[in-house]
Write a structure and sequence with these properties.
Elements (H helix, E strand, L loop, with lengths): L11 H34 L12 E6 L8 E6 L2 E8 L2 E6 L10 E3 L4 E3 L6 E2 L6 E3 L8 E7 L2 E5 L2
Length: 156
């Protein structure tokens, strides 16, 4: 180093500019954090505008050929999953959302039951009742109509 080289100094104007920038950056960080916390809360509290207002729509979920006796499958009913089962007492449908923690249930071919893969809850395919596991209540029933060979689910 050169002994005669000037020592770098910071004048008051540069320091004020740096302080102002850091103050602005800190304020922006606080506002962004508050915005990230408040936005989901508002989204949860205000209803979205994409819900159907009247209900009662029929959804085609397949044909009787797609669902042989003793079989079941999960289908989309609008934005919600439903499970359709062809039992000895006819075609039945239930909400495919487990009443324990909201996992999507599936048809178990080995036991011929509706089963939740998350915590092992099992449901009766004839009436949706809990057969075992932690679910506190039965699956919600969905109205089924078979017209010809087509299976329709009707929203309540």
């Amino acid at each position: 180093m050169d002994a005669d080289a000037p020592i770098a100094t910071v004048n008051a104007e540069e320091l004020t500019t740096r302080r102002r920038f850091l103050r602005w950056l800190g304020g922006f960080t606080v506002l962004a954090t508050v915005g990230m916390v408040v936005t989901p809360v508002i989204g949860f509290l205000l209803p979205s505008g994409n819900h159907a207002s009247g209900g009662g729509g029929k959804t085609l979920v397949g044909t009787t050929g797609d669902l042989p006796a003793g079989a079941g499958k999960v289908v989309a009913m609008g934005s919600k999953p439903a499970i359709v089962v062809n039992t000895t007492s006819g075609v039945k449908a239930y909400s495919a959302i487990c009443t324990h923690l909201g996992c999507v249930v599936a048809w178990n071919d080995l036991n011929s039951t509706i089963q939740c893969p998350c915590h092992g809850g099992t449901f009766n395919p004839v009436n949706g009742a809990v057969l075992g596991g932690p679910p506190p209540s039965p699956l919600a029933s969905i109205t089924v109509s078979v017209e010809g060979d087509q299976i329709f689910l009707t929203e309540a």
